[in-house]
Specification:
With 482 residues, this protein is of the alpha+beta class. It has two domains: 144 residues, 2-Layer Sandwich (Chloramphenicol Acetyltransferase), CATH 3.30.559.10; 254 residues, Chloramphenicol Acetyltransferase, CATH 3.30.559. Helices cover 38% and strands 20% of the residues. It contains 13 helices and 14 strands. Strands 4-5-6-1-12-11 form a six-stranded mixed β-sheet, sandwiched between helices. Strands 7-14-13-10-8-9 form a six-stranded mixed β-sheet, sandwiched between helices. The protein has a two-stranded antiparallel ribbon with strand order 2-3. Strand 11 and strand 12 form a beta hairpin. Helix 8 packs across helix 13, helix 9 crosses helix 10 and helix 9 crosses helix 13. It is globular.
Length: 482
């Protein structure tokens, strides 16, 4: 495993399942369970990792390895269920919340897929789970080739026989870990894996990482003196609430054009309103307060697309929830994101990731757990935006209607928002600790009303959406939640 992948693996705990997931809804009729099994078996050669499990190195002398599972049985990983009538969206959300809240079996390949029948209007769904140590969000988009087609009449090959490779013994793992511990730094020096030749390559990695950290110091110092919404953070239990809302690109692009910034800036401004409404309803909104959200950023280069590992960094954005003016909230978000973009052009965030190659696995495990424990004192949310396909996708000839992303929560950060785009729609999947967010529907409705506020401010609201003062309290839309 890479250091980043190993970090996600080490961070898994009883109350912290660290898989990413999604719920995709399709036009009917639903395929049979056997058809889904045969489709997956035909695509397995494209992603060998789906037949591999994690093998820890004894005594944590090295990072965990991926090895073929000699007992791989696809019938364990693909489940079949149905929702009771009438098969509403809320019933699907409730089912998905339960399924996605359960841990994967770390002794088996780290994925599951659920075929869900019984949705209204003859539709059906797929709930998928893949551990974060195996894949990041952008790689996950590439992996749609596993099941998805771009035409309804696509042909699939017949399933192939598969023979697992021999699993290395504990003695072999220890010997390999010791060998790597000795030779890895030497390879970095002699082969210039760190981005240059010889010692210069290692120096570039260290200097690049140091420059990245130094460049971030002014922002971190400012954030440490800014009041944050600490009431949103706290211990995480074993259960989850999940809700979602959505917007059309045709709503977001005119806002961007009229008010400036990017579509992502507009989205973060709408999410700011969601947290503002949540805190206001709780009676804990204070002047100058922000909700600090970790925003993962893909470091994946075009040549790395499709590789099954994590290539991500992150920035921390202060969502100005105390600001009553939606345009001012958007400008604040835009200014921060512009500063981060400029900073990342001057520093090498990949150098920080590369530094993990020099960290002992035991220290890496302890460092990840310590960082998660400290996260509740610095950030209160995770907000990640994964661009999806802008063309229709099909599974066994059935067209996908919509997709919703599931992002895990960990440490003291009790809420995450996974944003996924498909065709002309952007969906917001909200995952939260069950006890910490009994009012998750307020957050969901607040995001939607935040978009409506920005439409009014931009002058792009339709005739069915009467104009109102920019800072007025928006009328919340109905949003179901578990």
């Amino acid at each position: 495993m890479s250091p980043t992948d190993a970090g996600f693996y080490f961070a898994e705990s009883e109350n912290t399942p660290l898989h990413v997931g999604s719920v995709a809804v399709f036009e009917g009729p639903a395929p049979t369970y056997g058809e889904v099994i045969r489709l997956l078996l035909s695509k397995m050669p494209l992603v060998p990792r789906y037949r591999q499990r994690v093998r820890p190195v004894p005594f944590a002398l090295g990072r965990p390895l991926w090895v073929d599972d000699p007992h791989f049985q696809i019938l364990y990983h693909v489940r079949h269920t149905a929702v009771p009538g009438p098969g509403s969206e809320e019933q699907l959300r409730n089912l998905a919340g339960r399924v996605l809240g359960q841990r994967l079996d770390l002794a088996k390949p780290l994925w599951e897929l659920w075929l869900v029948e019984g949705l209204e209007n003859g539709r059906w769904a797929i709930i998928s789970k893949v551990h974060h140590c195996m894949i990041d969000g952008v790689a996950g988009t590439d992996l749609m080739q596993l099941m998805f087609d771009i035409t309804p009449d696509a042909k699939h090959p017949e399933p192939q026989d598969w023979t697992p490779q021999r699993t290395p013994s504990s003695v072999e793992l220890i010997a390999g870990a010791v060998h790597d511990a000795v030779t890895q730094p030497l390879r970095q020096i002699t082969a210039g894996e760190a981005g240059g030749g010889g010692v210069t390559g290692v120096a570039k990695t260290v200097v690049g990482a140091g420059r990245s950290l130094v460049g971030a110091l002014p922002t971190v110092a400012k954030q440490l003196t800014t009041p944050i919404a600490r009431s949103l953070s706290g211990p995480i239990g074993p259960h989850r609430r999940w809700a979602w809302t959505e917007a059309e690109f045709d709503e977001l692009k005119p806002i961007r054009t009229a008010l400036g910034g990017t579509v992502n800036d507009v989205v973060l401004a709408a999410i700011t309103n969601g947290f503002r409404e949540l805190l206001r309803r709780r009676g804990s909104l204070q002047d100058g307060m922000v909700v600090r959200s970790m925003v993962p950023i893909s470091m994946r280069q075009e040549s790395e697309r499709g590789k099954l590992d994590n290539r991500i960094s992150a920035v921390f954005v202060d969502l100005p929830v105390a600001e009553p003016d939606p345009v001012a909230r958007l400008e604040s978000v835009r200014r921060q994101m512009d500063e981060y973009k400029q900073m990342m052009q001057l520093v090498d965030a990949r150098s920080i990731i590369a530094m993990g190659d020099f960290v002992a696995p035991t220290l890496l495990s302890l460092g990840v757990k310590a960082a998660l424990g400290a996260s509740q004192f610095y950030s209160q949310a995770v907000t990640t935006n994964v661009p999806g396909p802008r063309i229709p996708l099909y599974v066994l000839g059935r067209r996908m209607d919509s997709a919703h992303a599931y992002v895990p929560i960990a440490g003291g950060t009790r809420v995450s928002i996974g944003i996924f785009s498909y065709l002309n729609t952007m969906t917001f999947g909200i995952n939260a600790d069950f006890d910490g967010f009994p009012d998750i529907d307020v957050l969901s409705a607040g995001i939607r009303s935040g978009i409506d506020e920005l439409k009014v401010a931009a002058g792009t609201a339709g005739p069915e959406e009467p104009a109102r003062p920019a800072a007025a309290k928006p009328k919340p839309r109905k949003a179901a939640a578990r």
